[in-house]
Write a structure and sequence with these properties.
By secondary structure, this protein is of the alpha+beta class. It has one domain (about 25-130): Immunoglobulin-like. Helices cover about 35% and strands about 20% of the residues. It has three helices and seven strands; from the N terminus they run αββαβββββα. It has helices spanning about 1-20, 55-65, 115-130; strands at about 30-35, 50, 65-70, 80-85, 85-95, 100, 110. Helix 2 runs antiparallel to helix 3 (about 115-130). The radius of gyration is 18 Å and the shape is globular.
Length: about 130
Amino acid sequence: MNKLFSTSLFFITFILLVACSNEKIERIEKIDFYKTESFSETEKSPLIEITDTQIINNLRKAFNSAKKQPGIVDMISPEYKVNIGGKSYFLWISEKSGTIMNVEDTHTIYSLSNESIKSINELMTSKFDK
Protein backbone atom coordinates (compact mmCIF):
# COMPACT_ATOMS: atom_id res chain seq x y z
CA MET A 1 0.00 0.00 0.00
CA ASN A 2 2.85 2.38 0.84
CA LYS A 3 4.49 1.66 -2.53
CA LEU A 4 1.21 2.33 -4.34
CA PHE A 5 0.82 5.63 -2.48
CA SER A 6 4.41 6.68 -3.33
CA THR A 7 3.97 5.79 -6.99
CA SER A 8 0.66 7.63 -7.20
CA LEU A 9 2.13 10.70 -5.52
CA PHE A 10 5.07 10.67 -7.96
CA PHE A 11 2.78 10.57 -11.02
CA ILE A 12 0.47 13.27 -9.67
CA THR A 13 3.45 15.52 -8.95
CA PHE A 14 4.93 14.83 -12.38
CA ILE A 15 1.63 15.63 -14.13
CA LEU A 16 1.24 18.87 -12.17
CA LEU A 17 4.78 19.96 -12.98
CA VAL A 18 4.33 19.29 -16.68
CA ALA A 19 0.91 20.96 -16.78
CA CYS A 20 2.07 24.07 -14.93
CA SER A 21 5.35 24.61 -16.76
CA ASN A 22 5.66 27.32 -19.42
CA GLU A 23 5.10 26.10 -22.94
CA LYS A 24 8.42 26.43 -24.70
CA ILE A 25 8.77 27.15 -28.38
CA GLU A 26 10.71 24.35 -30.02
CA ARG A 27 10.92 23.82 -33.78
CA ILE A 28 10.56 26.90 -35.96
CA GLU A 29 11.02 27.41 -39.69
CA LYS A 30 9.80 31.00 -40.00
CA ILE A 31 8.99 33.99 -37.79
CA ASP A 32 6.71 36.79 -38.96
CA PHE A 33 6.49 40.27 -37.41
CA TYR A 34 3.29 42.21 -38.12
CA LYS A 35 2.59 45.85 -37.36
CA THR A 36 -0.53 46.27 -35.21
CA GLU A 37 -3.03 49.06 -34.71
CA SER A 38 -4.66 47.43 -31.69
CA PHE A 39 -5.08 44.04 -30.07
CA SER A 40 -7.59 43.10 -32.77
CA GLU A 41 -6.18 44.93 -35.81
CA THR A 42 -3.07 43.54 -37.50
CA GLU A 43 -1.74 44.30 -40.95
CA LYS A 44 -2.33 41.46 -43.40
CA SER A 45 1.24 41.23 -44.74
CA PRO A 46 4.22 40.65 -42.46
CA LEU A 47 6.41 43.66 -41.80
CA ILE A 48 9.39 41.32 -41.40
CA GLU A 49 9.69 37.65 -42.32
CA ILE A 50 12.61 35.76 -40.76
CA THR A 51 13.86 32.47 -42.21
CA ASP A 52 17.54 32.67 -41.19
CA THR A 53 18.21 29.77 -38.77
CA GLN A 54 20.60 31.72 -36.52
CA ILE A 55 18.17 34.64 -36.10
CA ILE A 56 15.29 32.22 -35.49
CA ASN A 57 17.29 30.46 -32.76
CA ASN A 58 18.15 33.78 -31.11
CA LEU A 59 14.52 34.87 -31.14
CA ARG A 60 13.33 31.48 -29.88
CA LYS A 61 15.78 31.74 -26.96
CA ALA A 62 14.64 35.31 -26.25
CA PHE A 63 10.97 34.31 -26.10
CA ASN A 64 11.65 31.10 -24.13
CA SER A 65 13.75 32.93 -21.53
CA ALA A 66 11.27 35.77 -20.95
CA LYS A 67 10.26 36.05 -17.29
CA LYS A 68 6.60 35.88 -16.28
CA GLN A 69 5.47 38.96 -14.40
CA PRO A 70 3.05 38.70 -11.47
CA GLY A 71 -0.50 40.02 -11.51
CA ILE A 72 -3.12 40.72 -14.14
CA VAL A 73 -2.14 43.39 -16.65
CA ASP A 74 -3.82 46.19 -18.53
CA MET A 75 -1.60 47.06 -21.49
CA ILE A 76 -1.72 49.70 -24.19
CA SER A 77 -2.18 48.46 -27.76
CA PRO A 78 0.78 46.39 -28.90
CA GLU A 79 3.30 47.59 -31.45
CA TYR A 80 3.77 44.21 -33.10
CA LYS A 81 2.33 40.75 -33.38
CA VAL A 82 4.87 37.96 -33.78
CA ASN A 83 4.05 34.50 -35.14
CA ILE A 84 6.69 32.12 -33.88
CA GLY A 85 6.56 28.34 -33.76
CA GLY A 86 2.81 28.04 -34.28
CA LYS A 87 2.11 30.54 -31.49
CA SER A 88 1.34 34.23 -31.65
CA TYR A 89 2.57 36.92 -29.28
CA PHE A 90 2.09 40.64 -28.92
CA LEU A 91 5.37 42.55 -28.62
CA TRP A 92 6.15 45.89 -27.04
CA ILE A 93 9.78 46.90 -27.60
CA SER A 94 11.89 49.99 -26.95
CA GLU A 95 15.59 50.62 -26.35
CA LYS A 96 15.28 49.86 -22.65
CA SER A 97 12.37 47.45 -22.29
CA GLY A 98 10.70 44.54 -24.01
CA THR A 99 7.49 42.72 -23.19
CA ILE A 100 5.64 39.86 -24.82
CA MET A 101 2.13 38.51 -24.28
CA ASN A 102 0.68 35.30 -25.66
CA VAL A 103 -2.40 36.28 -27.69
CA GLU A 104 -4.32 33.45 -26.01
CA ASP A 105 -3.53 34.74 -22.49
CA THR A 106 -3.89 38.51 -22.47
CA HIS A 107 -3.79 38.71 -18.66
CA THR A 108 -0.13 37.67 -18.41
CA ILE A 109 3.01 39.40 -19.66
CA TYR A 110 6.61 38.24 -19.90
CA SER A 111 9.61 40.57 -19.68
CA LEU A 112 12.48 40.09 -22.07
CA SER A 113 16.06 40.17 -20.79
CA ASN A 114 18.31 43.13 -21.61
CA GLU A 115 20.26 40.89 -23.99
CA SER A 116 17.04 39.87 -25.77
CA ILE A 117 15.90 43.50 -26.01
CA LYS A 118 19.20 44.48 -27.60
CA SER A 119 19.06 41.53 -30.02
CA ILE A 120 15.49 42.28 -31.15
CA ASN A 121 16.22 45.99 -31.54
CA GLU A 122 19.30 45.20 -33.66
CA LEU A 123 17.20 42.87 -35.80
CA MET A 124 14.50 45.48 -36.32
CA THR A 125 17.07 48.17 -37.13
CA SER A 126 18.89 45.94 -39.62
CA LYS A 127 15.67 45.01 -41.41
CA PHE A 128 14.45 48.62 -41.66
CA ASP A 129 17.78 50.12 -42.71
CA LYS A 130 18.01 48.00 -45.88
